[in-house]
Design goal:
The protein is about 30% helix and about 25% strand. It is an alpha/beta fold and about 500 residues long. The chain is globular.
Length: about 500
Amino acid sequence: MNTAQFTPAGTLTAEDLGAIHLIGVGGVGMSGLARLFLTRGLPVSGSELREWPSLAGMRALGGTVHMSHEAANLDGVDTVVYSTAIPQDHVELVEARRRGLRVLHRSEALAAAMTGRRAVAVAGTHGKTSTTSMVTMVLQQANQDPSFVIGGEISEVGSGAHHGTGEYFVVEADESDRSFLIYRPFVSVVTNIEADHLNTYGDLATLEAAFAEFARLTDPDGFIVTCADDPGTRRLAETLRAEGRRVHTYGEADDADLRLTEMASSAQGVRYLAEIDGRRLGELRMPMPGRHMALNSASAVLTAYLLGLPVEAAEAALGTFPGVRRRFERKGVADGVLVYDEYAYHPTSMTLALQTLREVAADGRLIVVFQPYRVYRTRDLQAEIAAALGIADELVLLEVFGPGELRGPGEGSAALVEVVPLPADRKVFVDSWDDAPVEVARRARPGDVVVTMGAPPISLMGDQLLDALLARTGTDAGPTPSTAATGPDGAAPAEA
């Protein structure tokens, strides 16, 4: 069980860090942190092994990128930042400690960047990235110019981080390694609590206790926002209210403080009526479908309302919400087949996403290309993951992505595919990355919807699928830059 300890947030500021070096800077979380520091005018360098798309933006902002991992990369550096995915015997970590440099986990460096701001920290088993993005856009619409670091990029904005001039700092708080416990939020949002990351926590009770500890770190002058529809967060709210803490809830439940009614979802988006304390706020619409997206948006509305911001700002921001990359992201259409990418890998978020995609598919079929994320999760939640995948009409399954993990006998995708409740001719396990686009091109027909889903590497397959579909028509789509670093192992950029 992972029992990593991190230094609680204190008085350290971003400017105290001096020249900063980030190991594995191509990952979404690390590249966002690099962007934040660069826009604050700090000297930043990073190391990577692959030319990930985020690196071009880092260089454009004046950052230095080393396409190798070696001791010499630390010359002139004051602080080295790493993520949980980086092993402790990594050459740059070892060298940083030998030189006596300041070494910080990504969350510790982020906490330093938040010093002096009112932090809005969004946590939960799933929905964090979308919710953090919605809160950010509502604050922007209300002219608050918040700083933010999100575990994904807001579509059409092309960034997951920004150094703003306002008092608020919106951050996605990661529970996977307990690092969310170093933050000291003014506002804490918990979207849901379900069994996950049990390699860190051991059981659900310990995980729920960690979320309660996170919520208790909220500033006494601030507040906590939770979902009234989720059993885990209902228990959390009851515990915290019994302790006299300020908790506000949202959801379709009759006792929710911000209540959603008359919800309707279609391929064109989702709409609902919102009321708080008997006061009708009006109808809110989003151009993205799904009940889960409506609930995420409600947390942003409630947060803004409690901060004293105009509800009209929330309505305007959510009405034009462009989505987040890798969250219901439309990749394109080829030979009449619509291709999406979706980050979901936990069975609950998979189920919600696939039910929404089925709405989009309408009379067409839903074909899922899934890469499971982590061996322990695939093993422990095999029945639940299989049931979610059973929503598909066709399944193409890749091997589990689990860097640093070893698969035991009977573990992995070969075992998973056997229990997915689909006929044998409608599901297939492919052990080669290059076989997946071939399978999709063979199975898909005009009117179908295809989604790549799961671990980070699968996001790189969308363009290859579009090329394979176009190849059926004899049309050459040309090279696509995002597929340059793909491979059967997927080697994703390091994340926390």
